[in-house]
């Protein structure tokens, strides 16, 4: 058996940093497409015991069983008897509550549901048993029927341990959502080139773990090894074993509980191109053996407990395209020799103690796509050479000590490439520069807590691709007009708390966007209740606290905002009767804050999904007894 086509190695490096670095560099060493690639994939919940009994409770079960151990099949599309019997043995070991294998009864297994035969050889080369229902979609849509259907079609049972034998000529194996001890018999699969075993089962009581790694040394053809999340804390020879794999190109040991090995004699690691050791608490300086990996293209050392300075010997790794050392304790000045990495496409040193100014030579990073220097102690002005990085798409500089004017740093070809810009919690001077409106591809803009002053520039309304805008905790004043939002049709999140802006559009104004989150605390929107809110039918989060509203809540409000999970209208002068909330909200828990207003009357029963209701400091009246007895699941704050 074999696989039609299933590339295991990624076509791009998937970028994992402390926040939103979404995509990384192209991987040059991609597998060659091979017809009928020999491949096994189990995406299931499995317990592996010493006796090699594999208990399966399949979640998303895409299984492809392959091998050369069956007798020759007929080329006319009729499977061999040995293959048919093997599949029946496989079926007999499975629990099939949905009766999905009811067709597995005839003489020709090529006609069985999920069995795929090769048109030329007649061999069964693929078995497709993926659950036709996706539990993630069912949970997302809150559909009980979808979840029930998913559960009904979920298989369980045993897999024959003979699949992991030396005469099974597979070259790719992917195991996900398993738990328990990983069997050493995997070392029998001597043809393996691509091995992925990921601990993706957060609910499993027994995590995937390995007690001895010696079986890995028998996989001399291995090129790709991914053991992400697997507990490898017991073996102390992980580095020696992987170093002795002569063909290894890609090594991923993230969150494996590894023990640091400070030195090793290298013979074979010169072929290594991709190394991910993130999430292992080494609590040490950067080991010297990493400096010798001069052919690396991708190096991820994030969240490893590393400290001291960046070793200058790293400057020899000039082929690097991806370097992530975020969430450590490096405390040196920004290394000027970083700018020698002219092939870099992703650089993240976020969440360290890096200090000093950025050198103007960062303009040498002409290939850079993502730059994350956030949460450090960097200072000074942003160099103008930043604007010359024509491929730069994502910049994260938040929570540093940068100062001065930022206008010149975003003038140049960067204005045609930048998609994400995070500058919050710095000490920049003056006002929001108008040329930010020229960043034609910008999707996310975060300028929180910078203390920018003066009016909000109208030019921000030109950002047609903008989806996320945060300008909270600044010193912005003046009026905001409809023109500020004219072209923001894709805007989904607007957070602008803590400013003194005035926004009173015409009564018939219809916003061009459909927001999911809106927070305008301390703006002046009143005295009338803002009518334009009724057009926001996708809101999950709404805060209009301290916005000068001195009006009754209109009846349309509670129907137009039925998707809300959080509502804050506190600290206004809202009057009228306390609203009836018996039928408010969706299936989600909802928190409502109406404190410090002029609402009056008794508290009426509320919907069961309202988990918090604050009506303190209003003109409440009546008894609380009936309400408390009827709404035991609601945290209520009631004080006249």
Automatic annotation (TrEMBL):
Residues 81-118 form the Leucine-rich repeat-containing N-terminal plant-type domain. Keywords: Cell membrane, Glycoprotein, Leucine-rich repeat, Membrane, Receptor, Repeat, Signal, Transmembrane, Transmembrane helix. One of its GO terms (biological process) is response to other organism. It is a single-pass type I membrane protein. Pfam families: LRR_1, LRR_14, LRRNT_2. Residues 356-544 form the Disease resistance R13L4/SHOC-2-like LRR domain. Belongs to the RLP family. This is Receptor-like protein EIX1.
